[in-house]
Amino acid sequence: MDKKAIIFKCDCYGHAIEITKDDEINEYYLQHWYMGHHKKGFWDRIKDAWKIIKNNSLIAEEILINSNEYDEFIEYVRKCK
Ligand SMILES: [Zn+2]
Question: How many angstroms separate the alpha carbon of residue 25 from the centre of ligand 1?
Answer without folding.
Answer: 31
